[in-house]
Amino acid sequence: MTVHLSVVIFLPLAAALIALILPRRLTAPLVFSATLGVLGYAIALIADFDAASGALQYVTDAAWISELGVRYSLGVDGLNLFLIALTALLWVVATFAASLRTWERPRLFFFHLALAETAVLGAFCAQDLILFVVFFDLMLVPFYFLIGCWGDGQRVYATTKFVIYTLVGSLLMLAGAVAIGVLSEAPDLPAAAQALAGVSAPGGSRLSFSLADLQARTLPAGTQQWIFLLFAAAFLVKAPAFPFHGWMPDAYRATPLPVLVLLSAVLSKVGVYGFLRVVLPILPEASLHFQDLMLVIAVVSIIYGSVLAFSQDEARLVVGYSSIAQLGFITLGIFSLDPKGAQGAVMQMVTHGLVTAALFLIIAALALRAGGSESLARWGGTALRAPVLATLFLIVALATLAMPGSPNFVGELLILFGTFEDKLVYGIVASVGVVLAAVYTIRLFQRAMHNRVAPDVESRDLSLGELATLAPLVAVIVGLGAYPQLVLKRSEQATTARVEQASKLAHRTARTAAFNIDRRW
Amino acid sequence: MSAGSYGWLVLAFPLGGALLIALGWRLLPGRSAGWIASGAIFGSFLSAIGALFALLEREPEARAVTSTWFSYAQTAGLSVDMGLLIDPLSVFMALVVSGVSLLIHIYSVAYMASDRGYARYFAYLNLFVFSMLLLVLAGNLILLTVGWAFVGAASYLLISFWYRRKTATAAGMKAFVINVIGDVGLVIATFLLFSETGAVDYAGVFDGAAKVFEPGDTTLVIACLLLLVGAFAKSAQLPLHTWLPDAMEGPTPVSALIHAATMVTAGVYLIARTHPLFELAPTAADVAAIVGTLTLLFAATVALVATDLKRIIAYSTISQIGYMVLGVSAFAYSAGLFHLMTHAFFKALLFMAAGSVIAAMAGRQSIDAMGGLRVAMPLTFATFTAGALALAGAPLTSGFFSKDEVIAATLDRGGLYTVLAIGAYVGALLTALYAFRIVFRVFLGEPVVEARSLARGQLAPSRHENPATGEQEDTDVGFPGPEHHIAERERSMAAPMGALALLALLAGLLGVPAVTHVVDRFLEPTFADSQYIDQTPSDGAAYLGLAIGGALSLVGIAAAYLLYVRRPALPLVLRARFARTHRLLSSRWYFDELFDRLLVRPTVAAGRFGNAVVERFLVQGALVDGTSAVVRAGSSAARAAQTGQVRAYAFLLILGVSALVLYFLSGSV
Amino acid sequence: MDASWFVVLSAFIFCIGAAGVLTRRNPLVILLCLELMLNAGNLALVSFSRMHGSLDGQIFALIVMVVAACEVVIGLGLIVAMHRRRLRIDVDEMAQLRG
User: Fold this and answer.
1) How many B×C Cβ pairs under 8 Å?
2) How far is B636 from chain C (nearest CA, A)?
3) Cβ-based neighbours of B121, under 8 Å, separated by 6 or more
4) Is A329 a member of any domain?
5) Residue B69 to residue B84: CA distance in whole angstroms
6) CA-based, 20 to 30 A from A483: which of A335, B396, B537, B583?
């Protein structure tokens, strides 16, 4: 039992609470140092991580609500190690970028920023289902305020839509979570009633929401299916996936850019992480049953997101729709129900987060140089006096389209390889998405940096502050591109363990057909 | 040092050069960036020679050295290493690439001297050479794909080097997208091979394929066809060739390096490298051979009527690579690769000379505006003619021996390949015709204004406009520099051109049938496992082929002389007679329009449809607005009961109480 | 004297009061009728107390009177406030709680 993870999770919140009572000029430095502390901790976790064991490390496991079987249980394994590091790094970058601007009511702003970091880290570290749901819903609160109070344009409409969309999913997920906990202990109604009655009995109940326990107990297939749909609703809205992405355009327009970095790069990952952490291990039969449905949703998201990405005029929405497509790839990898696909999904989660964050920072820099406008029609020729910006943007753009040599390529390669195993057709349609990604990314790059200098554009190179936020991200992207094994080695054990059961079921049904090469055609 | 270490050095030099120039460009005065870059390539070339000798020290059977640095990605059964394969094929390619690149770097030092983006140019050029060397030295299919993509990215950067030109950026986008299509083909092919053999490194795949696949296996054929998709995208073969002529938007040395000597040969290299797979799937090899032949004929016909100097040479490249593809798909590997080498020499030379011509013409590229430059530019004329002779396959030039070796080997295969060989001979005739069309139109005849002033010692000032559209430009970063440089005045341009002219004329001596077999013997260990290794044409057949080829080239040169020197009115008459054919050829067989209608317009329309219909009506309208409309309707229905009238509430109260009382009364009675 | 007749009488008075609440529009009259209903209830309580011989009903009747007094105070206060604002003393006009 260690307290490391609790410190990691609650350090930002503690700093923010202290900052609430200190003078205004200390707020940003204090919160920023807290995020740096979390990042340092995360790097130490990676360095100290034992790649060979698939078990949870740095475990915290204390009783919380023993009557309901809810425990305060945290742990790190290959699956969430790099997501925690990604969160820590991106919060450092976003907080620094935010501290370069002035905000109204800065103490409240940074408080919400820090609370959001706490919630996200908690969601990633949680090893108890109800604890996970608590942090998942907690994530929503600070973002509601950040968008609604400090956003631009139709911010209240955007944030209301965003919250309602997410809440519908989250509440369904809560129902599903409770159902899992109760029904895995007592599979039918009378026994369930008895178990619930036993909740208030003196010795506590036999209910448990710990993920390890839930994975060990199996639910009947029919029950698994409707619970799967409840969870899928929540996670697909978070991602977002077509057709649940309606909140995205307005929210992306309204959110202030440093917050948008976090919304797009980190928040979307919690949903797909939930699939790998909760759904696939605990509901394997349902995952297999709905595999085709989820693959269709994934592939449609890829194509739809890519096609819309290159017909947008607003730079933010290009990246927004591209995120729908990339998250579609991640979902594809997860529901290929193959270890390669799952490893690819984990890799892609990390690299997509890095790349999207860098893209939004670059868009912020470009908007500053175009008189505040983010419309592609008003951009052009910014590369003229900005070679450093152009180079960094190029590297990020090439990583976005998953050019071989970037870490995104390794992720997509593994995802496609995992999909091709049994579901060749889906993989081939998804490959079309790769070509479309090249089109919209190069279009964005060229409209911004190349061709004639647009009349409103003032081409100047990156300032020191902008460089400080962008350079570390680009360095990590390039480094991971040269050595992706860094992530793959450590995530392998845990990820393959999560997918194991569903994968076995999937291959069993696939191979009952004659095992020969022609089965694919 | 071992062959492996030399291999890593070959890669380290250009990468180091690129990084050095990229990071320190502000500190490098004058032309030093160019010399640093050239020095880096020289180091790479020397290392390649070192690797050559290290290989030659070994026994022929042991000339395949793998060198692994670290594990790149290893998970769930997939194991990819950062590893190189040093064998005769890769060393051959590395020598050709680094050697020709070196000469082009030296040429560029002067050619690009007044461009404001000088350092950026050399950083990109070094990066490109690094990528190409990575591609040829890679030891597994994934690293090959990484090199493949880097080459595509470097090519994009160099094509859109003058990035403020709309035509250049559009050309770059086109090239990049077609390249990505090739990448996707490679990835799917790699998967098919991996899933059956469990490996991605060459040795594992080839050995595994021999064990797992029956000859003609469907999966293997499809995998090979997908490899061909990648190869054709990179080597600009039908139908993925449309990017190459547009790529002439880049500076001329870029065209020389990338689009003549190196990048476009990557597809040929791929087929040669994966030859064990193609030999197990002859159907795919036949497809490749047919496509190669069709391409060489198509491109030759278009080159006959094109008027932009660089585009003619570009179509010539497409055509000549068709020969190489034909060669390696007919399993005449060393013939195809020999032609790759000689083509690199004479095509790079042609482009370099073309660059000099265009500079003399103050940036104009249309041959209709050129004439009689022979007197003013003797060096350029001599080297260009040398290159044209080699291209036409005039007797005893390098192109003569290499091209005719390819065609002779094809003829020797028999069956379908006899037809393809006849097509190749027709193409050879056309090649000689268009090659000397350029020579006679540009260098002979009445001298134009620019030629006359140059003969008097006055170089025409550059016009600062886009040669294709005529738009006015400035000379700042992103557009060409203020001055143009010609070979007669710059030694660092003349020297490489002279060296290449010698090579273009004399390199054929490396492959004279029955006399010298330098290339064949060197490449033998790589292709030792081929079943066709001993199926070379007999000496008699080879000499007959040489005779036919030589005769055809002389006929072509004579015909060009007739049409463009003796009877200059004749081409115009022919154009009028065959107007429809002329239109077909000058519109490049309408391929661009075809792709625009088939692919580009539907996708753009889909995007517009997505925005206007799906986003507005389905997602926003149905889901969001629909839900709130339903909720609002429900609550207004419920609101009807809230009248605000006290008496109505009282009535309901009494009603309810009475009902309860009655219920309990009736229950107890 | 049979105490059940008093219960019948109380039922009559209750119904008259209820009818008055439901049909009259003047709030003063409604308050009067409410008093009728409450007193009818009182009468019923007292007669039941007499019938069963225990005092619980009579004590409860006292409590009802307290409640009636409080409720009349508030009701009359509302009517005076309505009058002060020059509103029509008509229950149907007071529909501000309409949804």
Assistant:
1) 31
2) 9
3) B108, B112, B115, B158, B161, B251
4) no
5) 9
6) A335
Sign of CA dihedral A451, A453, A456, A458: positive
C interface test, pick of B632, B636, B639, B645 with most C CB neighbours within 10 Å: B645
Half-sphere exposure (Cβ direction) of B26: Cα atoms closer than 13 Å: 3
Compute φ and ψ for C71, nearest 5 degrees. -65, -40
User: Would residue B142 count as lying in a domain?
Assistant: no
Domain that holds residue B644: 595-668
Q: How many CB atoms sit inside 10 A of residue A47's CB? A: 7
ipTM: 0.90
Which residue in the block uniquely carries the two structure tokens 């064949």? B520
Query: Mean pLDDT across the stretch A413-437?
Result: 91
Give C96 to chain B, closest Cα distance, Å. Answer: 6
Instruction: Work out how many domains chain A is built from and give that number.
Output: 1
**Residue B630 within a domain:** yes
Could you report the per-residue pLDDT of B459-477, keeping only the tens digit for each? Answer: 888 888 888 888 888 888 8
Does A492 have pLDDT greater than 70? yes
Query: Tell me, what's the pLDDT at B231?
Result: 93
User: In the structure encoding, which two tokens stand for residue A245, read together?
Assistant: 């992405």
pLDDT tens, position by position, B485-527: 888 888 888 899 999 999 988 888 887 777 777 888 888 888 8
What confidence category does residue A520 fall into, taking pLDDT thresholds of 50, 70 and 90? very low
Highest mean pLDDT (candidates A39-48, B474-483, B542-551): A39-48
- Dist CA C48 CA B330 (whole Å): 118
Beta strand extents in A365-499 (DSSP E only) = none
Q: Does residue A107 register a pLDDT over 60?
A: yes
* A98 inside domain: yes
Residue B448 has pLDDT above 60, yes or no: yes
d(CA B13, CA B94): 13
Give ∠ CA A512-A514-A518 in degrees, rounded to 5: 130
Rounded Cα distance between B620 and A49, Å, is 46
Domain of A65, in residue numbers:
1-136
- B22-29 long-range contacts, CB within 8 A, separation 24+: B22/A391, B22/B123, B25/B119, B25/B120, B25/B123, B28/B119
Asked if the structure places residue B385 within a domain, the reply is no
pLDDT tens-digit readout, B148-192:
999 999 999 999 999 988 899 999 999 999 999 999 999 999 999
pLDDT of residue A514: 32
The answer as to whether A15 is a domain residue is yes
Query: Which ranges of B330-470 does DSSP label H, i.e. alpha helix?
Result: 333-360, 378-392, 398-413, 416-443, 449-455
Within a domain: residue B602?
yes
Whether the predicted pLDDT of B309 surpasses 60: yes
Residue A177 CA neighbour count, 13 Å, CB half = 26
- The answer to whether the Cβ–Cβ distance between B606 and A488 falls below 8 Å is no
> Which pLDDT value is given to residue A467?
92
The total domain count for chain B is 1
DSSP structure class, residue B85: E
Q: Classify residue A30: in a domain, yes or no.
A: yes
Closest alpha carbon within chain A to B183: A404
Which tens digits make up the pLDDT trace of B354-402?
999 998 888 888 888 888 888 888 999 999 999 999 999 888 888 888 8
Instruction: Tell me how far apart the alpha carbons of residues B246 and B159 are, in angstroms, rounded to a whole number.
Output: 9
Residue B561 CA to its chain's centroid (Å): 32
Q: Provide the b/e sequence for C5-41 (b: ≥16 CB within 10 Å).
A: ebbeebeebbeebbebbeebeebeebbebbbbbbbbb
Report CB contact under 8 Å: A404, B77: no
What is the rounded end-to-end Cα distance, in angstroms, of chain C? 52
Residue A518 has pLDDT above 50, yes or no: no
How far CA A308 is from CA of A248, A301, A348, A497, B425, in Å, comes to 13, 10, 21, 36, 49
